[in-house]
Amino acid sequence: MVDYLGVTFAGSKTLKDKATLYADFIDSDGAYSVIGYSKKNNLATASFLNGLFAHVAELDDGDRYGMFHPGAPLFSALLPLMQRFEVSTKDFEKAVICGYEASMLIARTLQPFIKEKGFHGTGIAGTIGAAISCSVALNANKEELKSSLSAACTSAAGLLKVIKGKSQMKPLNVAYAAQNGLQAALLAKSGFSGSYDVLDGKLGFFHAFSDQLNMDVLLDASKTDDALIHSIYVKPFAACRHCHAPIEAAINIANNTGFASDAIDSVEVETYSWAITGHDHTEIKGMNSAKMSIPYSVAAALLHKSGDIEIYDNPYLTNDTVLALTKKVNVIENSEMTRKAPGERGARVKIKVKAEEMSFFVALPKGEPENPVTDSELVQKTSSLCAFAGLQDSQIQQVVSLMDSKQLDSEVLKNVLYSL
Description:
This protein has helices at about 1-25, 45-55, 70-85, 90-110, 115, 120-135, 140-155, 170-190, 205-210, 215-220, 245-255, 275, 285-290, 295-305, 320-325, 335-340, 375-390, 395-400, 410-420; strands spanning about 30-35, 35-40, 265-270, 330-335, 345-355, 355-360. It is α+β, with helices and mostly antiparallel strands. It has 2 domains: about 1-230, Orthogonal Bundle (2-methylcitrate dehydratase PrpD); about 240-360, CATH 3.30.1330.120. It has a 4-stranded mixed beta sheet with strand order 4-3-5-6. A two-stranded antiparallel sheet has the order 1-2. A hairpin with a 2-residue loop joins β5 and β6 (about 355-360). α1 (about 1-25) runs parallel beside α17, α3 crosses α8 (about 170-190) and α6 (about 120-135) packs antiparallel against α7 (about 140-155). This is 2-methylcitrate dehydratase PrpD. InterPro entries: MmgE/PrpD_sf, MmgE/PrpD_sf_1, MmgE/PrpD_sf_2, MmgE_PrpD, MmgE_PrpD_C, MmgE_PrpD_N. Pfam families: MmgE_PrpD_C, MmgE_PrpD_N. Belongs to the PrpD family.
């Protein structure tokens, strides 16, 4: 939750001008707060704007097996809902756990097959997670849950084509997932009935998106008591997760060697196949293009020992030294890494300086449950993102103080959101 807030505050700064213009266009005045945005909006638009803000910084949590971001659409829908309806602390926690569980089961059943067809897993599975989360928060009964799932499935969408070039539309997939998930829950609560089994059959959700499925994921779900939310990762770097192992390796090399940037002859990145498609470009056409690029991310990490949000903005984006080194980075597949993915999402970075070669290998990047971000690292991440967004020290402390309680009180959360 705290991670989501820091990431979304940062995103609100990045998109504030565009969001203000959009909200004016659609006359979205209402009573509901949006993270990092002073103007109150109607319920649907509040969830939509939260979703835009939550994903644009490329710092939101994720699931390496489901290859998507579960938290961004879920919290973006759930927080406005909590302003409209009374949601107890117990129901809030249950809603979060159930929403993560539903979306992660769906994503793991569909991946990597939908990625290979060009679908964005966050837009698709995230819609279902947001819908189930909101329905649980509203104490939906079994039939209402099924209707909510049905409404979510028929509105789930998202294309990976929108990450290409100068496109700024990738966060739109999360915005729609949040808004459609919220509306699915409210439609079900209003009495609209859905399909008996929207997932199955030739006309069902699964068949519409893929001819191949990991059905064992669903069939084995009841065999464990461990909630899937415990297996998410938290991002330390402001780039696509496929870039993180290369960034971490590059920073390690930079921290342990001394070299001049113009002395680097070449940089080679070995990684798994899914990380390469859509992420090996060296022509950087803006912030979003840079966040999707392993070559840019590695070049910036080698030169500045960082993967922070500032690295993906000017003056770095137009820096001749960074761009020149980006052109020297070649990304290739390592078949053994491909075989091990997604259990491992590894990368090896090798740089050549004259006759000397330096390399570093990362099997699982920082933030995975096997290699977790510490509490102090999460506080540092959240504090820096909130500061980037322009929050005062006292406001930042309000946000990070939410980590102090083992049980997140829903009223305390609402009070924090209202006060910022």
